[in-house]
Amino acid sequence: MKSSIEIVTPAPLGSLHGNRMTALRWQGFLEKLGYLVEVTESWSGDDTAVLIALHAYRSHQSIVRFKETYPNRPVVLILTGTDLYRDMENHREVIQSMQLADRLIVLQSSALDLIPPSLLDKAQVIYQSVEINAPSPTPKEDFLVSIIGHLRDEKDPFCIVRSLPLLPSDSKIQVRHLGQAMSAPMAEFAKQCNTTLDRYQWIGEVSHLNALQILSQSRLMVISSRMEGGAHVVSEAIALGIPVIASDIPGNRGLLGDDYPGYFPVGDAKALADLLYRAETMPTFYASLQQQIDLRKEWIHPAREKQSIQELVSGLV
User: Fold this and answer.
1) What's the confidence (pLDDT) of residue 183?
2) What pLDDT, on a 0 to 100 scale, did the predictor assign at position 135?
């Protein structure tokens, strides 16, 4: 029997937060490799050979307690977007967690630029994989655009709302917005947009399967985030071959590539509207997005992520 591993994620049981989905995917890979794996919200105190923690800031106490109890046992820290692009500057616990960890994992290549040079030797990229078993091709509706992600400030969820009135009147774009509102004012505003914008429909939180089904029906997916560590929904769009219109941030560039033609400046609703209309009305532009998405598929193959995780853990245990 191989060693036991505990994965700590602050995302609660049953949630569809990206951190929880990452933890469950790693659990699946590690169990297939023969390890005993438990996923918790904070370290349980159990005698485990390796602690894998998501979120340097919110899992800081788990990392400290584990290292105090087992100073010679390894900690793997998976850095999130909020760790890298917000909390590192504001909370010293982020750097402390990184110093205590034996390995630092980032989910896209541009995140390596944020790692302090003194810690870079223990950092590596492991791309999030996607395995989607679609029973049959799903017909695409008349230029449906999907946005998938909880409604919170980091996602700039209403950039799309600001862009829709800027589309030419002949555009046939329709938007479906999936995700739970993380505050009452956001929920109220999304409901208001449902009634005032003909092109917009906020559906709220749906199951992962339903989200993938709507994504597969889409012509485009929009991700307008102000910060991302490497959004899993981008990997899902790549796996399904759905072109992405993305905010120009390192977390998106690290997944889609510097030469991807579908970026717009963060928060720029006019630039977003222009890209959406170009994709709708210019077949050559849409084809260039599609080609770049297809080129990225090899990076998010499950066998690649499984091998990376196997090499990581076997080198520590």
Assistant:
1) 92
2) 45
